[in-house]
Design goal:
256 residues, alpha/beta, Rossmann fold, 7-stranded parallel beta sheet, 42% helix, binds nicotinamide-adenine-dinucleotide
Length: 256
């Protein structure tokens, strides 16, 4: 009998799956029996997929710069071809740029919005078309939001705008899709110790690092492993009646 969290036979695309939080989610799906394409721009994408395959897991790599519309469209279709269909779409790729707001360069604003907001919407759209092709439409979209979907942060106005947008388009799509067998939800990670945050974590004496750490009720920063349970829940039948949610995974930061 199939359990409600079972992912055997499920087919997933995870952008940004070569490292960090995307890697943790891809690993969770693979360990639960899914086939996964990790999509990313660097050579690490191929290396990560090869590492998974060495462990006997069903993982492919598709290289694409997701800031380029044609490239992500080709990559998406390539991924669906490799998997023979699609059941789960995870948008985890993201970038950060830090400047005082009055100096924030226009080209950096455009790049952050393209990678963090436009690409996830475009990939969600393509995933929905794929899900609707099934005789009984079915699919799960998981978008990685942020605490910056709620807060404004410091020196990161483009990132905050992009993550606010991710939540809002997910809610908008949810209203059209919840009655058609498709779930779209967001995860809002808290402060996670990944390469995205090296500007904050590189020096433990950094006062910003210290003030953030002091506020986390769980007394630690999170990591890729902390994304696994929520990713499996949102990708599986366990979440069939969960629609348009934004679920914090933050050690309690949001309520402290
Ligand atoms: N680390 C945190 O504290 C934190 C908190 C909240 C949300 N997030 C979000 O989680 C997601 C994963 O971040 P992370 O912390 O693992 O960071 P990370 O820097 O370790 O990983 C980001 C991933 O995105 C990929 N990527 C970036 N630009 C790309 C492009 N143009 N084309 C293809 N791939 C690209 C990178 O190759 C990498 O695999 C991001 O969306 C980030 O905004 C992170």
């Amino acid at each position: 009998m199939q359990g409600i969290f079972d992912l055997n036979g499920q087919r997933a695309v995870v952008t940004g799956g070569s490292r960090g939080l995307g890697y943790g989610m891809a690993e969770a799906f693979l360990e639960e029996g899914a086939s996964v394409v990790i999509m990313g721009s660097s050579a690490r994408t191929d290396e990560a997929a090869a590492g998974f395959r060495e462990r006997g897991l069903r993982c492919h790599a598709v290289r694409a710069d997701l800031s380029r519309r044609e490239e992500r469209e080709a990559a998406f279709h390539n991924a669906v071809g490799l998997l023979g269909g699609l059941d789960i779409m995870v948008n985890a790729a993201g970038i950060q740029r830090r400047y005082p707001c009055e100096e924030f360069p226009q080209e950096e604003w455009d790049r952050v919005l393209e990678v963090n907001l436009t690409a996830p919407f475009h990939l969600s759209q393509m995933a929905v078309r794929e899900f609707l092709k099934k005789e009984l439409p079915y699919g799960k979209i998981i978008n990685v939001a942020s605490l910056m979907s709620f807060f404004g942060g410091f020196t990161i106005p483009a990132y905050a705008a992009s993550k606010g947008g991710v939540v809002q388009f997910s809610k908008g799509m949810c209203n059209e899709l919840a009655g058609r067998g498709i779930n779209i939800n967001c995860i809002a990670p808290g402060y996670m110790d990944t390469e995205l945050n090296t500007a904050l974590t590189a020096d433990p004496r950094n006062p910003r690092y210290q003030s953030i750490t002091a506020r986390i009720p769980a007394h630690r920063w999170g990591g890729p492993e902390d994304m696994k349970g929520i990713a499996i829940f949102l990708a599986s039948h366990a979440s069939d009646y969960v629609n348009g949610a934004v679920i914090p995974v933050d050690g309690g930061y949001l309520v402290c």
